[in-house]
Amino acid sequence: MASRKAAGAEPGRQRLIRHKGLRDLIMNRYLYLLVLPAVLFSIVFAYLPLVGLAIAFQDFNPIKGIFGSKFIGLDNFKFFFRGHDWLIITGNTVMFNLMFIVTGTICALTIAIVLTELGKNLFVRTMQSVMILPNFISWPIVGLFSVAFFTADTGVINRFLSSLSFGTIDFYTDAKVWPFIFVLLNIWKTAGFGAIVYMAAIVGIDKEMYEAARIDGATRMQSIFRITLPMLKSTIVMLFLLSLGGIFGGNLEMVYSLVGDNSFLYQTTDTIDTYVFRSLRTAGSLGMSQAVSLYQSVVGFILVVLANKLAKKVDEDSAIF
User: Fold this and answer.
1) CATH class of 84-318
2) How far is residue 144's CA from residue 137's CA, in Å, rounded to a whole number?
3) Residue 183 CA: distances (Å) to CA of 119, 157, 180, 197, 258
4) Tens-place pLDDT, residues 39-58
5) In 3-state terms, what secondary structure has residue 58?
């Protein structure tokens, strides 16, 4: 009798598991309705455009469209990888973004810790408002102001160097100086806004830990290195992984706003995005441009997955997925 009951209960349990997702959908239908606009937005603007990846493998003709253009396999990729330019372009892209991530994280953390340690006063509130302002200034505006600083004869920097009897720098023909300029401008533009995230994380740390450390005789610096930074580890790793997703992004707006199509500077300023944009304007081949963009996206995705696995081994709570 007991075996019959167990046998009869087993199919019912299987049916319960089989329809568990549908039952959850019905029970929480109003919550799913709230999510529906975001899901539809992602499908329309993030997943449906993936059909356009087929252009990378076609001799694309806008008149014939995606489904009517001739399939040419990997010929568009051969155009990009046949020379040594792709190594320089990829190296510049990765170098810039790594420097942006490292320096931006260090500066944002430093600003957040310093302002938090200063407490809540008029100066701190004013600085919080001032330091996020550069984030809302577009790169084309920054590019217009940069001309006044970097022009060879009348630029502010060269005039200052001349007044000190130093040699002037021809910024728009000297490719070596631009990686440092890009890093400094990126810090100026993004570090203040990034500090807001870390300040919010620092505020969430239990204050009793600092009080206990102060009773034990810990200095402010010891509290920062023994409490604040370890408690921010998960936030730092998570933001690093999110930033790593764009490590193959070429910062098109920044580079073009500051140097444009200056062939003297290609050696250190040409990135994947600028190469794609320039080739699209000059060669007019959508297929070759899409092939380079696909290469950029695939490698960036692989890097994020590998970095996430590494983060999960070090600290499972720090991983994104």
Assistant:
1) mainly alpha
2) 12
3) 29, 17, 5, 20, 13
4) 999 999 988 888 888 888 88
5) strand
